[in-house]
Amino acid sequence: MQEMKTKITTDWHIAVKRVGGTTPEAQARLRAYLRQSLQAQLDNTDHLIAGDLLDDFTIDSFELTETYKIFTAWLLKYGKKLALVRGNHDWKPSGENRYSSFDLITSILKQHFPEQVTVASAVTEWKQFILVPHLANSDILNLEISKLKDVSNKVIVFHANVGNFFAAETQHSLNLTMEQVEDLVSRGNLVIFGHEHQYRSLVSGRCVVLGNTAPSSIADCIGSPFKYAAMVEGTQYELKPAWDANGSYIEANWRDLTNIDGYNFIRVVGNATALEAAAVIKAVSQLRQRSDAYVITNSVRVEGQDMTMNTESIESIKKFDVMGAIYAELNEREIETVKELMK
């Protein structure tokens, strides 16, 4: 029996909150844009989201309700199947005994559509897929990978990094080595990754780092002019453009910020003298006030130095779960001691 096509998207980060480059009004537009983009990708095809549907462990109830409405309308209209993989933004060690927004929306969807909705909070088989969500630590991930040593001719979907040595030393963002990926591919498997936000094709195209389907930051826009969804049939796939930088993303010199209306993501660039620093800040501030863009970042260099700390670095710092990282290294008694000290 021939497998029906499945569309894969990933890393929607619904309800995203940006630290830099936005105003409150722009943040609201960005969040609405992400919901609308998700809705546009739900068509008459089974759909798999490879992690990080939501941006945080707990999101605003309005965002959660609107996202639930989008899925419900689609499930009722087409009667197709939906698989949702847990990502690293959906789980954290400190939240082990708490219900996340991901847990809430998926449990309600599964209750209302038990024959259509599959949730992968643990390694899960679905159609021709094996879904490997974000797991608690690298040891558990490596154990699950070892269980796949006899698996062949499947589509294996991970929410993790590939060949990222820094991630290999953390638990917030897990990593597969290229050797592990090549071993899976050698048995006829197609390996697809969510989590990383830039598209990459590895192992002669048999490993796909899909990249997030819709950008939510300037960093997401840099590197590739397209964002993709993957259409999978059996163990073969075709990439379908889901976002085009043309008309949406622009790099504009701070000295001429005219004729950029309609762009959603704007990176202000150029060089300035120290005496011009205040003029740069004023120009960027005025642009943010008059523009309908979702994100506007200041990447102007003043006398060879960046004017401001890279906003994507700020985002990474904000999202890093410091206490979760500490708790992951402690036993239960030590965790309780730390919690008592923090009261």
3D structure, described in words:
It contains ten helices and 19 strands. The protein has 343 residues and is α/β, with parallel strands linked by helices. Strands 5, 6, 7, 8, 9, 10 and 11 form a seven-stranded mixed sheet that branches. Strands 4-3-2-1-12-13 form a six-stranded mixed sheet, covered by helices on one side. It has a three-stranded parallel sheet with strand order 14-15-17. The N and C termini lie far apart (60 Å). 38% of the residues are buried. About 5% of the residues have low confidence.
Write the layout of secondary structure elements.
Blueprint: E1 6-9, H1 24-41, E2 46-49, H2 61-78, E3 82-85, H3 101-112, E4 117-120, E5 124-126, E6 129-132, H4 138-146, E7 155-162, E8 175-176, H5 178-185, E9 190-195, E10 200-202, E11 207-209, H6 218-221, E12 226-233, E13 236-244, E14 249-253, E15 265-269, E16 271-272, H7 277-290, E17 295-298, E18 301-302, E19 305-306, H8 311-319, H9 322-328, H10 332-342
Helix pairs in contact: 1-2
Report the count of strand segments: 19
Shape descriptor reads: globular
Please compute the radius of gyration using only Cα atoms.
21 Å
Strand content: 15-25%
What number is the mean pLDDT?
88
Major sheet size, sense and barrel closure: 7 strands, mixed
The percentage helix is: 25-40%
Structural class designation: alpha/beta
Span between termini: 60 Å
In terms of per-residue confidence, which ranges show pLDDT below 50 for 5 or more consecutive residues?
Answer: 308-325
* H-E order: EHEHEHEEEHEEHEEEHEEEEEHEEEHHH
In DSSP terms (H or I, runs of 4 or more residues), the helix count works out at 10
